[in-house]
Structure prediction request, 258 residues.
Amino acid sequence: MKTDSIFYKIFQTAPSTFFELIGETDPRSSAYGFGSQEVKQTSFTIDGIFFPPLRMRQAPIYFVEAQGYREEENFYYRFFGEVHLYLKDYKPVNPWQAVVIFTEKRFDPGLPHPYSEYDNNPRLQRIYLNKLPPEMGDRSIGLGLLQLIGTKPKQAPTKGRALIDRTRQEVTDVTVQRNFIELIETVFVYKFPQLTFGEIGEMLGLGDLRQTRAYQQAQEEVLEKTVPLLLQSGMTVEQIAAQTGFPVETIQRFVPQN
Prediction:
């Protein structure tokens, strides 16, 4: 489970969480949309952009990147390269800001010299989840969920169960409540990859997670990577299905299209 995909799922479920995280209190922020955008000339997609409505020409575009590991010095070259390619391609009239969210401060490789002007510059905001004030997670469930990502594994089970109880108490919409609980499950799947889904479910007091969306998404990510490799090794779709225990129809979904 990729760390950045967890952040994007959180921001899609509760976009206000991002603006709470960066300290933006302008009520107009509720009008922003969150998504991705292809950079046409290079055929790659920038994930994690908050777009203001067209009428808000003075409101900034936010480019968001999340990091749960250390990418060394190439990180900022890649990130700013993508931002400037987007600006060159689309030529937006809005100002822009970059926000980088690290699960831990040690994952920040530091700004390389060509980008030193962004140090202590409002154009770039760097956030370290493991350095957030403990009380910050009390402001909203979304912030509590982000803080859970940066929580040490020993403390995570207690905080996870408390956040689930809080979600059930504060969120009355059944669908939204279920979405938040599934996000908590997903955080734990990422945080404890060595545990089975049954063990994670027991840790959170939720029972076996094998029927949940978090489990299904994790399984699909595994199949997406392994099915092409097994096919290249000479195995058939039927043999892969027999070995993995998935139906043939499921395996066929991950067969590369020529």
About this structure: The CA atoms of residues 67 and 102 lie 5 Å apart. The longest strand covers residues 44-51.
